[in-house]
Amino acid sequence: MTSVMGSPDATGRFGGFGGRYVPESLMPAVLELEVAFREAWTDPLFRAQYTSTLESYAGRPTRLYLAERLSEHLGAQIWLKREDLAHTGSHKINNVIGQALLARRMGKTRLIAETGAGQHGVATATAAALLGLDAKVYMGEVDVKRQSLNVFRMRLLGAEVEPVKSGSRTLKDAVNEAMRSWVAALEDTHYCIGSVMGPHPYPWMVREFQRVIGDEARSQYLVATGSTPDWVVACVGGGSNAAGTFAGFVDTSARLVGVEPEGGAAIGRGVGGIVHGMESYFLQDEFGQVNEASSISAGLDYPGVGPEHAYLHTIGRARYDQVNDDQVLDAVRLLARLEGIICALESAHAVAWLVQHREEIAGTSVVLTLSGRGDKDAETIAERLGFLEGESYA
Ligand SMILES: Cc1ncc(COP(=O)(O)O)c(C=O)c1O
What we know:
Mean pLDDT: 95
Strand content: 15-25%
Bound molecules: pyridoxal-5'-phosphate
Shape: globular
Low-confidence stretches: none
Number of helices: 16
């Protein structure tokens, strides 16, 4: 029996989703990882090391900020959980610090990772530098181009970046390549997955390393207002910032909302299937082939979703809505001009949801996870806004 956002069952399933679908050659590695994580997560010394690294190095706790002008504009009280202010510029660092410390505890000397927007790759390169580990990051060729700032950052941090040329040359293909290369290097290498996806124990482990977002936000909100919010909103790619946020509020009366990109809405438009080691929802054609996602934000350009979100959707505990690229660009500009915050395109999906649902949220309170900052997207935003407005932002 699965408790909502507790531990998955022994086979790593959240209701009908999740599991561990890997080739035989990978099975010992995922089993070893599960045992190591279970031990570490119940070891007070490991927990203390994880927490103190997040505090002293990654800048936690991040602020919960009452966005007054945005609130006035929307007629609702909007609180922003500022993951954009975490070291490296997004929530990805929370998970990576956890996995890098775990990898070192397991005696691994090398990290590999996939990345879409490059934020997880930068976080992995950062943690590797911090702990003296080697790092190699797989990134689709399309994303290498549109997130060139992050490619530079990874290389400056000492990581090797391998452009992936297969398939759609985006995140899905980077995951395939990382998994393939892991099989050949299990002895010394930990595969640091960047979201709540992949085979058990990753979806559960990554959610646990990200629950710090929701736990902090809940107590910060309580201190500020004496209560819990009406809504909790976050963008969903694989779903790690949303899962970490939801975990802090799942036992309250808050309505949980995950926001998917229209062109990559695995819950909204996908069907059940097994890809990348997990059973979940994926964009697929009638023959079960995985379709390509398409989103302005590299970090949400993924045709699947973490299995726990599929479960939360099925039982009705969380709701998943979609916004499109133009609404996202409007949201970036709105937040920049009302609050002086340039957020990541991924995070702007959550802001766009507020705008699209302003009548529904009128007079209520919302905690929204702003998962990252927008520096990496400056070029894309300038290009698209210049195009939309007929102005040059150069
Ligand atoms: C800033 C930011 N937010 C959100 C995401 C999406 O990931 P997830 O759904 O796992 O939070 C990414 C992924 O790269 C990201 O960089």
